Every structure is written in structure tokens, then in C-alpha cells.
# Entry
Amino acid sequence: MNKDIYLTNNLKNKKEKFIPIHKEKIGMYVCGPTVYDNPHIGNARPLVIFDILFKVLKLKYGINSVNYVRNITDVDDKIIKSSKEKNILASELTNNIIKGFNDDCNYLNLDEPNQQPKATDHVDLMIEMILSLITKNFAYEKNNHVYFAVNKFEDYGKLSNKKLEDLIAGSRVEISENKKNVEDFVLWKPSKDDEPFWDSPWGKGRPGWHLECSAMSKKYLGEVFDIHGGGIDLIFPHHENEIAQSRCANDTKVFANYWIHNAFITMSNEKMAKSTGNIIKIKDFKENVDGQVLKLALMSAHYKQPLDWNEKLLEDCKNTIDKWYEVYLPTNDKIVLNEDILSPLFDDLNTPGYIANLHQLYDKALKGNNEEKILFVLACNFIGILNKTKEEWFEFKKKKSTINEDDILEMIALRNKAREDKNYKKADIIRDKLLDKGVLIEDKDGKTIWKIK
Ligand SMILES: [Zn+2]
# Structure
């Protein structure tokens, strides 16, 4: 594929042509879940967006040319708090949540990253990095805590494009008498008696959150790599701190070349917040919504734009997928999609543009021959849609319906009788009753056909 990939690089505040360091060995690191609770729909957005980027990179550079690392944060204040409330070990909680997270990724039909390293397996590397930062005078110890001295790193704030004072003023910074300056952030802190701990030169304790991504990206991708991604809320402080730690410890001019961030999801135009209870977990959709419907909804807005989540969006996406299955044909063909079709995805992951192309391909497939139908199915498959057979799709829809086939046929017979008797009012009432139960009927060539909505 000759087409170039363009991405909005937040480090430069502009859209840029993607030029990898090594074409055969592209490194992409995305901040993954903190496993204290099952992921919600807001967490699903970066999973889907960076999965699309992974697919586009593999298509352009070759299936084995991309090393995609998505970490798992399995030690953290929220994990400790939640495991204490549940009266279980932190590791028991995190193992359960990781299992649920992997199920959610399968439900969304995501390609598996090459590495999913856990923070707790890499604490030795984090200690090594802290020692190096202390030796180089970028970090200091006080009362069993180690802090990074932000004023020693002159590029701090460059990713957010803000001055240090403005960053500090706009965030909740932890106040501690152990810190030399208020903006300094913790690299190591002591653990309480009932908390997970590791031995270190500064006593029994645990690492600060930001450090794990610096240590694990170095191990799996090297000191300088291509792409770093995550949600927009991670830019400050998390990503600023990752850059500071890595560049100072490794003595490099750059950490990752391209920084890509996805925007928030709102719920019916309100900010998602646990306190207001308007958070939906991915697992709560599984019973009633097929994973590909959820996925299409998550791709319906450009990743840089906020996405408003509401019932209508899901309903529209369900109807779209349903319509698309009308031209579905099973295929094992390996047709290479042409550049025109793929062009929106290469242009800064423009998923709404790609979906518009799919609609056009559908129109052609509807009127066209099998070859056009297969091309449409393959274009859908590329982004993980229409990955189920038509039978599986209908099976799922049928399962959801509260009415069985015998009852449907009986009601249709009653409606036909009413129509014969010219009792159209009664016939309409029966039709509406079926519609309420999710059954759509249509009179065609003297026969009544039905389908689940
Ligand atoms: Zn991170």
C-alpha cells in the first residue's frame, strides 16, 4: 500500500505524515485499564480507536511489523481501596477484573495486542529507573518517598502546550511536606501494613502510577518509539510525567514521536461520572446488544471529537448493521481493499468517513453482483464489522425477542383474518402489538413476512 498515513500528533499540535523509525518494527504503546472495576463505555473508545490504528499500520507495513503494547495497571490506590471493601486480596480482585476485561475485548472483536504487561510484574525495572533518576539528580528521597523534581526538566508541559503554573492551577495536586516543590510527583511511596508492597532501597513500598508506563515501554519498545496513545484525560499529568521520567532516565531528546489522544464520551450530553450514576459498563450491553453494534457506535464520531452516547445512536447502528446483513455473503476471499475505500482511515483515522464509504459500497452491493457484495463484506470485516454469519446475527436477534415463533405466526393469522373481514382497525392493532415486541411485519406478494427488529 503506497498511501501515507496521517495522524494528529499532539506533541506538535498538528496533523503529520507518519514516518516510522523502522518500517519493519513499529512500536505503539497505549495506556490500558486500571483493573479495579469492569470497564465502561468511555474506556471502550480508546480500545476501539487504537485497534483501528493497529489494523491500519499492519495493513500498510505488514502483519508482523507492529509491536502493540497495552499495559494493565494492577497496583493502584483504587485497587487497594476496592479490594479492602470487598475483603479480598488485591490480586484476587485484579485477576477477576482482567478476565472480565479480556471478555469485553473479545465481545468488541478487537485484535489482541502483542504485549499486555502487568505493572506488578515489572516493579524491579521501575526501581532501576528511580535509581537512575536519583543518580542523575532528577529525583530525591524524603521519608521513604521518592519524588521527581519537575523543575529539573525544562520541556515539562510541552505536550499539553501549557506553562507549569497553568497546569498546576488547573489540577488537584497532592500536597505533602515531603515534597520540595508542589509540582513534584511521586515515584515511590511506602505501603501501609495491609497493602501490597515490594522491597526497595527506600523501604517496603510501591511505585507511583506514572512510572510503570515508562518502565514497560522501555522494556518492550525501547527508549524511543513511534506512537503513544490514550484518552485525552491522560495528557496531564500522566503523559507529561511519563515523558519527564523517560527522557531524563534515558537521556534522550524524545520519548515517543507521535502522541495520539481520543476525546471523551458524554451520556445524553452530560459528562459521564460515577457520582451521577450515568456510567454504563461494557458487560451490561452483552445481553441485548451485539458487539458489532457497539463497535459501530463507538466509531461513529471522529476520535478527536466528543461522542454523545444515547439510545438513538445505538438504535441507528443496530438498524444499519441489520440492513447491511441483507447483502451479506460468507467469504474467505483475500481481496486487497483499494486505496479509495481505505483513504479516510489513512487520513487521521476518519472513521465516520469510512462508514460513509461503507454505505456507498452497500448501495452498490444491493444492486450489484456477488463480487460487489463480497467487496462490501470485506470492507466491513476490516474494521471488525459483519464478522458474524447472517445466521448468527439473526439467532442473536431472535434470542432477544420476548415472543416465540408460534405466537408470531398465530398473531399474523389473526391479523390476516381481520383483514379478510375488512376489520382494518383490528388488523392494525395486532400489527402494532407485534411491533411492540420487536417484530416487524410486511405484506409482500400476497404473503405476510416477518422479521425481528
Ligand atoms: Zn500510561
